Amino acid sequence: MDFEFSDDQQQLRDAVRKWVDRSYDFDKRRAITRAGGFDRNVYTELAGLGLTGLYVSEDDGGMGMGPVEGMVVMEELGRGMVHEPIAQSLIAGGVLSGYAGADLKAAWLPRIAGNEALVVLAYVERKARWKLDVCETQAQQAGGGWTVSGAKSVVTAGDQADAFLVPAIAGGKMALFLVERSAAGVSANGYLTIDGGRAAEVKFANSPATLVTTDGLAALQHAVDIGIAALCAETVGVMDKTVDLTVEYMNTRKQFGVTLSTFQALRHRVADMKMQLELARSMSYYASLKLNAPAEERRRAMSRAKYQLGNSARFISQASVQLHGGIGVTEEYIGSHYFKKLTQVELTFGDTLHHLGEVSAHMQDTAGVFA
Amino acid sequence: MDFEFSDDQQQLRDAVRKWVDRSYDFDKRRAITRAGGFDRNVYTELAGLGLTGLYVSEDDGGMGMGPVEGMVVMEELGRGMVHEPIAQSLIAGGVLSGYAGADLKAAWLPRIAGNEALVVLAYVERKARWKLDVCETQAQQAGGGWTVSGAKSVVTAGDQADAFLVPAIAGGKMALFLVERSAAGVSANGYLTIDGGRAAEVKFANSPATLVTTDGLAALQHAVDIGIAALCAETVGVMDKTVDLTVEYMNTRKQFGVTLSTFQALRHRVADMKMQLELARSMSYYASLKLNAPAEERRRAMSRAKYQLGNSARFISQASVQLHGGIGVTEEYIGSHYFKKLTQVELTFGDTLHHLGEVSAHMQDTAGVFA
Amino acid sequence: MDLAFTPEEQKFREDIRAWVHENLPKDISHKVHNSLHLSRDDMQRWAKILGKKGWLGYGWPKEFGGPGWNAVQKHLFEEELALAGAPRVVPFGPVMVAPVIMAFGNAEQQKRFLPGIASGEVWWSQGYSEPGSGSDLASLKTRAERKGDKYIVNGQKTWTTLAQYGEWIFCLVRTSTEGKPQTGISFLLIDMKSPGVTVRPIIMLDGGHEVNEVFFDNVEVPAENLIGEENKGWTYAKHLLSHERTNIADVNRAKRELERLKRIAKAEGVYDDMRFRDEIAKLEVDVVALEMLVLRVLSAEKSGKNSLDIAGLLKIRGSEIQQRYSELMMLACGPYAVPFIREAMEAGWQGEYVGAAHCAPLAATYFNMRKTTIYGGSNEVQRNIVAQTVLG
Amino acid sequence: MDLAFTPEEQKFREDIRAWVHENLPKDISHKVHNSLHLSRDDMQRWAKILGKKGWLGYGWPKEFGGPGWNAVQKHLFEEELALAGAPRVVPFGPVMVAPVIMAFGNAEQQKRFLPGIASGEVWWSQGYSEPGSGSDLASLKTRAERKGDKYIVNGQKTWTTLAQYGEWIFCLVRTSTEGKPQTGISFLLIDMKSPGVTVRPIIMLDGGHEVNEVFFDNVEVPAENLIGEENKGWTYAKHLLSHERTNIADVNRAKRELERLKRIAKAEGVYDDMRFRDEIAKLEVDVVALEMLVLRVLSAEKSGKNSLDIAGLLKIRGSEIQQRYSELMMLACGPYAVPFIREAMEAGWQGEYVGAAHCAPLAATYFNMRKTTIYGGSNEVQRNIVAQTVLG
């Protein structure tokens, strides 16, 4: 039982934080949003730091690191609200490493780690909402290969990615495929998301696809769990900064001749924010430390974590805006963007009610971290 | 649309309040609890005020009044936390008036109004929890009459009452019966309740019974709804007094050289208590004003009201104790008894989660008071 | 005690409903029912329709050309408009400045300003808040110096709603720095076309342009535009606030939006998910309780017996409910609330909606609703007020 | 980073578990597992068993005869005891006064008092709070006047837990009224059999006798019972508070009680009611999050690197969770939580339970748990402290 970061992990954190401070200030981020919410050059810089290959083995050109390093990186990216989706690289690296055959790994993992390929998970469907086992996208065997047909929604950077991880029904059972964006029949209709990042509606019409695994549901669940752990860590970073901003504002802004931080009712709200932050940070640790656990235990842990993070994000985001007053609801103030980012967290990888349902459905007789 | 009380209603309120102030102070109440939680002499005094016959027609010796008068009375009894169960007389008066045949009415309504008979609803069963349509008590036709067999729980003043209204299954369908406590096979095992009042486990073994109505479920639902409206009003009275006590204490008790009412965080808690009180009062009005509505509309209104009252009671009771600090958790302080009373409210006629379920199950497309 | 409206009140409601059905343009109500962007033209078109009927100043007494309705009638009018999907009456002219002009303006001012307000011709803005004066309004600094028959105004107002359309603005300005801050404030009407007035947009977190900064740089204002006496402006402004009562609860809109929430939840398939449905059920009770609270205030006003001093509660609860329904609508759409396509929030967009058309504006509305617990006296200030009435 | 305990820590845990299984009397754990009334004999019997093993002072360093465990070991020990249904160690002797005597007492005092504490022979009480000094402890008024080689003590303490069993009491007393209130306070050990000491019960809202008023009427206390220097008592008391860290979260008990809640919910048939089950699920996450928070503090202590100053958060969250599980157990029983039969809350009652035996003490426990957000520094005071660390 040990929650201290190693020197290597601390150095990784410092490196990412330094990059964010130097290369991704609010103006830069805003410019990227204006230009569409994604910047390939930035993504290339992040790849240069090794972040795209964090979960890719060193043999395949990656860093061969684990969930704790992923957490450290995502926390720092969260503090800077970096649009470019490193979490997707963690998913792609983790899932391909865990489920793909040797050829597929050899073909794609080095490209992911080396920034030649941005591979993103395309799994949301209109009828599925947050359910992972509802899938209308179909896969057909054709000649020696496969094609997929269907539509996936709100695919992160979907019109900028090079390839997609696509769950589809093959022979009545969910399998996972890799489809290149340049493949025939693929169309991607991109748009801004509420946090100022980018996503797309992606359609596949008999598009050539490569089978990753026939054990598609397990792979998809794993992919989403990697995403949840990364998102939890990112959210901790976002909230950490949100609390900092709020504290700074309250110690500066005067009303009735004194700073806002003088008012006890507001002070107690800040104490509650701190509570939610530390509970969330604790559960983010928990999620990352359970990411390599057996599937059932892992899934239970991710739902618990996402439930806590959702509650914390809601409280902190809403309290922060309220404590700021008018300035908190303006576009020009950075705080409102943290609010929007935290709103998007709730709408990603299952909302709080969904994960409450998962926790509720999978409760055991025992209780606690080690139960 | 008018929420003003008539002069008669105001006089009724004044009369009950005057009686409470004069005849039911904290010491008196405490003595009644020590003696078992029920005092027939007190009940007789209340009957003398006409309260036991509020819902009994003037022809039958009652006051022939309606839900608003019932509400006014219950609010005042709530302020004094009067143990003696006038709500049960409202139920018995209302249900017998509405469902019983002429003979039964003639036999019992004058006795209820005249305090010769305390008739209480005995409906809770071990397997039913809050469900009204679960009933294991059986009725058998025997000769020209009926007998019932079964067990009912937490019957208000069950070992002091003269007769019970008992739902039982007759020929596969719920019917409602009247059973005298003196009847053969009736046993009542009494005890104190958490609010210091009295209840009993009542068992019936082939006990002679009089049929009130074969439409037993409708009558039971109506009985419980009369009880809910009365309980809501009573709860408003309890909470009103709870808020008063809290305000008084905060304006007296000093810490750090100033009164508690100086601290903004505590002041805001009081503002939230006031909010919950006024929302609850509004919904209590709503419940009483809907008590004579058609069954479906009436039941929907009662669940909405009980849900609000439950939430308000929980918040106000817990906040009040907390704002009092140590003194708030002592037996000698009256405030802790208000807390216990409000706890019992939650456990009577369906708890907050139960009524949320009812609201949820019976939602309509439209919204609001008039929907 | 009676929950039902009187036959006369029912008749009144039906007359209003029929008139609204006849006169509210369908393109406008479509936008309101779907949270789509309302243009200046939309708002003013509706204002003029009301003005022509004599109902834009629906709260005005007969002596000033209003309908002379009582509190219940005003409520029924607001309710019918809200349920039908009418835009909210932009309050700055008919609801805010007009009562002040009626109560404290002179005959000349009344003659000059009220007709343009009643007809919907002249767009008014409200100049209260300043960058340093939010909750602490009395600390405002915008100066108005008397020079002969003019005031010279310098300073800045902020959070000025829809000032980009404004033709006139009523301002609280500082005319004296002596005594308590409240005592040196005057109430001034300013033509926004005057030289030295500059309006700069503030873009909100939902991307919308709803509020502004308004700068005054040596703006000359004829002294005849002063309402009442110099340094008495705070009193007038407080009078104005006392005219805003049940309406701040916005319960009629809440009823409309709760119905919309149910429609969206059904379309998204979550109405039958017990967990989500329960959240709607909770809000259902919240709305009923708020409406009962509003009706109690109205009843007290109608009877003239005991006034119910719970405006603070109405503001707090009403705003919380607005925020909650906007949040639940967004959550109902789940991942489909994530796209933020501004054009899709305009009526008549020909693009391909992500998920469904109803999903498009929901996150923006949720963002926009954050303001409701901040403006008009933040909920923290309201809690201070409520606590004061309870605790002293 | 690693969630798992080390093999050494696991071994430690298993050893404790085996010992507890062997030595904890079953009649006592039965009472704890079912919230039944614990007598003085129950508590002291268990204290002496621990004392004999040398574990009553489980937080003590080796030099004073303790096991010299680190923070993690202490946590594991507490956890195993809690999960097995051991009564909480009555803290006033071994956890509260002993560390003060070790740190600030002289050798004579250590020799005189520590053995009786370690063995569980002598029952200690804590004399801090006074009727006028709750959250504002430093305003305490109980006077101790030095007269030769004695102090004459006059005044009153209150909320004195289990003082009806107390043989000794450690008190904060005022020895000076000069300077700040904190500077005139001394730390005095008082034999409760001294003439002039009177203990009066305070009955709590659950009907239980758990706390008392303690009156001092010209009580003579030998000056040798003063700990450290006169007027430095506040410093010692604060030192004592800093010894209470993760334990205030009471997370181990919360785990035990959450499991009990699930058993009760199953027995009552509400575990499969989604609405009720969701409430348990929320608490499940709350408990995991609290445990992670506790483990983070332990890890920081173990590593000695960055200490985590979040004791206030542990107190707030821990107490909220205690209140919540007690509330949910009560709600699980529904109407069957209404009877309040004191005898049914004692072990071995031969009467007829209403509903089921597990229902009998639940409302009383819910009532009793209200204290947890009040005592040990109310949650409002804790929020003040947390805000201070965050905002300055």
Structure description:
Chains C, D: Belongs to the acyl-CoA dehydrogenase family. Chains C, D: Residues 231-390 form the Acyl-CoA dehydrogenase/oxidase C-terminal domain. Chains C, D: It comes from Ramlibacter aquaticus. The complex is a heterotetramer, with 2 copies of chain A (371 residues) and 2 copies of chain C (392 residues). Chain A has 371 residues and is an alpha+beta fold. In chain A, 62% of the residues are buried. In chain A, the strands form 2 sheets. In chain A, strands 1, 2, 3, 4, 5, 6 and 7 form a 7-stranded mixed β-sheet that branches. In chain A, strands 8-9 form a two-stranded antiparallel ribbon. Chain A contains 11 helices and 9 strands. In chain A, helix 5 (86-99) packs antiparallel against helix 6 and helix 7 packs antiparallel against helix 10. Chain A folds into 3 domains: 7-113, Acyl-CoA dehydrogenase/oxidase, N-terminal domain (Butyryl-Coa Dehydrogenase, subunit A, domain 1, Orthogonal Bundle), CATH 1.10.540; 119-214, Butyryl-CoA Dehydrogenase, subunit A, domain 2, CATH 2.40.110.10; 219-366, Up-down Bundle (Butyryl-CoA Dehydrogenase, subunit A, domain 3), CATH 1.20.140.10. Chain C has a 4-stranded mixed β-sheet. In chain C, helix 1 runs parallel beside helix 4 and helix 5 crosses helix 7 (233-242). Chain C is globular. The mean pLDDT of chain C is 95. Classes of the chains: A alpha+beta (371), C alpha+beta (392). At the A-D interface, helix 7, helix 8, helix 9 and helix 11 of A face helix 8, helix 9, helix 10 and helix 12 of D.
The average pLDDT score of chain A comes to 97
Q: Which word captures the global form of chain C?
A: globular
Instruction: State the distance separating the first and last CA atoms of chain A.
Output: 15 Å
Report the span from N to C terminus of chain C: 31 Å
Oligomer: heterotetramer
Structural class of chain A: alpha+beta
> Numbering strands along the chain, what is their spatial order in the largest sheet of chain C?
1-4-5-8
**Total domain units of chain A:** 3
State the CATH topology of the largest domain in chain A. Answer: Butyryl-CoA Dehydrogenase, subunit A, domain 3
Second CATH tier, the architecture of the largest domain in chain A: Up-down Bundle
CATH classification class of the largest domain in chain A: Mainly Alpha
Number of β-strand runs of chain A: 9
Mean pLDDT of chain C: 95
The count of helical stretches of chain A stands at: 11
For the biggest sheet of chain A, the summary is: 7 strands, mixed
Keywords (chains C, D): Coiled coil, FAD, Flavoprotein, Oxidoreductase
InterPro entries (chains C, D): Acyl-CoA_Oxase/DH_mid-dom, Acyl-CoA_Oxase/DH_mid-dom_sf, AcylCo_DH-like_C, AcylCo_DH/oxidase_C, AcylCoA_DH/ox_N, AcylCoA_DH/ox_N_sf, AcylCoA_DH/oxidase_NM_dom_sf, Mycobact_Acyl-CoA_DH
Protein name (chains C, D): Acyl-CoA dehydrogenase family protein
Domain Acyl-CoA dehydrogenase/oxidase C-terminal (chains C, D): 231-390
